[in-house]
Structures are given as C-alpha cells and as structure tokens.
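2024-03-11 09:14:02 INFO receiving multi-entity request
2024-03-11 09:14:02 INFO entity count = two
2024-03-11 09:14:03 INFO echoing inputs for audit
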Amino acid sequence: GAGVSQSPSNKVTEKGKDVELRCDPISGHTALYWYRQSLGQGLEFLIYFQGNSAPDKSGLPSDRFSAERTGGSVSTLTIQRTQQEDSAVYLCASSLGTSVNEQFFGPGTRLTVL
Amino acid sequence: RKEVEQDPGPFNVPEGATVAFNCTYSNSASQSFFWYRQDCRKEPKLLMSVYSSGNEDGRFTAQLNRASQYISLLIRDSKLSDSATYLCVVHNQAGTALIFGKGTTLSVSS
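2024-03-11 09:21:47 INFO inference complete, emitting structure
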C-alpha cells in the first residue's frame, strides 16, 4: 500500500523567504509527527498531531515554525523568514492510533536555505 | 547528559562477524524503546522494538536494562546488506514523540 509521502523532495530557498512543506500520511493513521535531521545530527522532534490537534508542539524551535493538519490527513509545516540554520531534512511520520505504535516515515524534504 | 547517547562508530566489520551496539538513555520514566535503521539518504525504518525480557528477530537480538538505562543491539553473522546507521530510539515521557540517538554507523565488508 501507499506509504507516507512528502513534497517537495527538495527545496532551495533564499534566506528570509517562507516555505511550506507537505506531508500525506498513511491512510487511516491518526497520529502524525514532524522531525528534522540536520547534517551530522540525530532526528529532532518538532510537533505531534492527533487528528487535527497538536497536543505536543514542544519541539518547534521558534515562532517562525508552525504546522497544521486538516481533515485528519494532510499536514503542512510552514517556516517563515527562513534562516540558513533551518537547512535540514524535514521528515514526516505517521502511526496508527496512539503514539506507542510504530512510526512510518516519509522520504523527507531536503531544505536548503541560501 | 543527552537524552539518548550512542557510540557513533563507525564500526567496520567483515562479513560473518558479530557486532554489538550500545545505547544509554537519561529519562528513567521512558516506557518504549526501539532500534531503527537508516540507510544513507533514506528515511528511518523500524528494525525492532526492545522489551525488558530481551527479544530476538533472526540474526538480531535486542536487550533492555531498565536499572542501568541501557539498551543493546547484537547482530550475528553480519551481511553486506546490514551496512547502515542504527538509531537507538526512546519514547519521550509523554509518549508523544520519539527521541533519537545520533546513530551508530556499521560498515560490513566482504
């Protein structure tokens, strides 16, 4: 079956521009997560959705980062006024029901801020 | 202390070798533990969950020591296809997110 998909796969932007990253979770998965992986670093948790609400957004690094989820499905991560330190691979994952289930990851969006 | 710590390696072993990876975690309230595998420039994929009693999946054996807050992964009879980065993963206390170690890189050569 279809896995988690993300778009775009690569995004190059100029410092100061806004970007939107999209995630399509596995159908029926109610939990959705965003992570980012910087070069040489581990995966860093950003935000968790259960349905359309975000009970844990503690990982968002600044107020330039926001995310929403609509229809219990697609999620968008928005980064405003991008900075060079935002360059990373942004990974989306989804899981069935509660967060203790296996998380399935998408292929990621590689963001480069020039 | 970092939440999840792993030896980054790299571990360079010949085919057929046995190799062990270790990991420590800082939050004693953590309830769920995993090993994920990440191939170069790919997304992480679940390798196996880790249970207190220890568990085995083919050539892979995972162990958890809650008292020492220590997790291990043993790979027997290494294959070329085992070459990857192995990520030690712990659920955060709220159970809302996975906390990843930076990973241990394994390279298996013929």
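2024-03-11 09:21:48 INFO post-check: The two ends of chain B are 37 Å apart (CA to CA).
2024-03-11 09:21:48 INFO post-check: The longest strand of chain B covers residues 84-91.
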